[in-house]
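Annex B. Sample input.
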Amino acid sequence: MEHFEEFYQDSTVLVTGGAGAIGGNLCRALSGLGAGKVIILDSLASSYEWNIPKAANISFVQGDILDDESLKRVFKEKPDYVFHLAAHFANQNSVDNPETDLMVNGMGILKVLQYAHMVNVKRFVYSSSGCGVYGLDSKMPFEEHDVSIRLHTPYQVTKLLGELYTNYFYNLYGLPIVNARFFNSYGPGEVPGKYRNVIPNFFYWAMNGEPLPITGDGTETRDWTYVGDIVNGLLAMGVREEAIGEAFNLGAGQEQRVIDMANSVLELAGSTAGIVYRERRDWDKKTHLLSCITKGQKMIGYQPKTAFSEGLRETHRWFVENWEYIEKSAEF
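Annex B, continued. Sample output.
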């Protein structure tokens, strides 16, 4: 985990959405770096108590980012660093529930920013979306300056809105913010479900002997990025001075075909159920996704290190180890 101990040692860190896959892995990393107190604020609306990291320096508060009592409770600890990962996730969920999406991803970040400003945090890192803020008119590989306003889901709209709010607090108040644009995160900790990402869902179906449904023809590509690499990027954003006021892509910088990923999952799970093809969803306009990670490499030393094959093996191992919990929790 590079040399982050000197920065996070004995600090107080708030992670909203810390019971989720990225948040949980981030909290474990912060705990291991010797943070004095890691506070998780999570409503458990889309995460589970069994999946919350446990350690002496990690405390869990079940609460909502829209609820002032919850926010007062965690911000009275005067966190040095805030990682705002709580969100209404993801594209299909936002299409089905656009008002909830706007409240959580819009009003939610505004409230958290207000409290962060009041306690004078050292750094506010926001989880934006590389799959969200770049549109069909953005050139691939996506570079940080090439943001689009021609978007296709409420989730994309509200993720961009979050960046506009963080930038506003930086421009008006000098709040030290950083915008992290995640690309297709995957890895241990993500429970499958109706609105979840494709990799955990594919492992769940493959391990249950069900065929894997591909929307499209399988030649579509994604920039799947291992959660451990994303965590290292977030830790750097929290402490590098050069990061303040900037946005960074946290991707692998490599395209992987959906069909190849599906075949790898089937192989790891020992499944012969095969693949079925379905119509692409109305909002699913991006057949290819690829991040440019040069800016992060140059400015904050971001360097994804996990090969896709290795990341899939680690994800499968986590599924096997937690299968009893996953079976009870998966909601489709």
